[in-house]
Amino acid sequence: MAKAKTVFICSNCGTNSPKWIGHCPTCGQWNTYLEELISAPGTGTKEEPAWKVLAGKMPKTSPVRLDQVKDSSVERIDTNDPELNRSLGGGLVQGSVVLLAGQPGIGKSTLLLQLAMSLPLTKILYVSGEESTEQIKIRAARIKGNQKNCYLLGETDIQSILQEAIKMKTELLIIDSIQTIHNNQLSSATGSISQIRECTNEIIRYAKELAVPVLIIGHITKEGDIAGPKLLEHMVDVVLHFEGDRHYAYRVLRTQKNRFGSTDELSLYEMKQEGLCPVSNPSELLLSQHDDRLSGSAVACTIEGLRPLLVETQALVGGAVYSSPQRVATGFDNRKLSMLLAVLEKRCGFHFGTQDVYLNIAGGIKIMDPALDLSIVAALISSLEDHPLHRQVCFAGEVGLSGEIRAVSRVDLRIQEAERQGFKAICISKYNGQVIRKKQSGIRVIQLSTVLELYEKVFAR
Disulfide check for 47: which of 40, 51, 82, 440 has CB 3.0–4.6 Å away? Predict the structure, then answer.
């Protein structure tokens, strides 16, 4: 195959250069030149990929009026994993491209290998550019997998990978990982922005033309973003983010983008010796694992996606050892913690300015729900005054800068989950009182308007 012609283009101003240069002479920006594939030598058109010659060309399409388009339901493949099905919106869609990203060692390869082991009637090609086939076999033995229709391929050339997939008539393609795959037509290093973009383009064309679902593993940077161009997240159909603390057993799978279902969905797994096990009732695992009433502990009723979760917020407030008080939060935004402390100091008269404050979300997960504010405020006051809260009371409310407790969404679902887990009372905003269903009478609903009212009703001795 002839070497393709490439050119370097400034991503800021569009200036072309035959070779890479660090400083753009036109716009003055640094490190903005990216390699682009334009055509093969001696031809005026872009070279046809080798895999596409085998698969056949895509037929030409013509415009269709909207009312003439036939309604058709999306065909999905059941993954035999209820948590993964939840994140995907019901299962894998034919021809979809799913990107799974996460920290090193979090369990991305284990999750997809378990998926390959759980579909005995599907011909699967598992491509690994990081591990040998012997290493994958060892992991498969650890998770007790035995799949005769799962084929392993240790290859990093995208053209060879897609050719093998077409020859095998693969029904599911798994690539681990996209940062290790390269295109020989580009001279840039493996893992560069241009290599990731071009290889992903080839994969998407293959998936759409042959209606084969593709699962791609992606690395993340030290900042927590998906490595490679930001365009990568726009190109794929589904973006799943696998997160969690490696020192904890729990892993959280978040749906950041889904063209075939709802976003902001959440699934929970527990890492065991035999692999990742789905957690059907995460509230039982995330709640406190002690029987004594301790100060600084409060339970929040949160919602991630469509799933209600009861999580424990733990606060520790003590005298500052150094001149500058410490503000440390684990699983929660540190800036939001500073804001809540300022509200308690200004609006309620609690003196946190000379106190060290440590906050932790039990279980090692990170919660984004604003309804967590009320639980954190209750835990902070409880630790400051060394006043334990009742273990059968939970909280759901957002705290504003004026000290008011604002309404939160899906309060009915939160109350149902609290009642199902055996709680006797739940504290919410009084502005949610108008939307509470009358049939929910098995749990006491405490309606609050300000943080001061929270102190009067909950911490009254």
Answer: 40
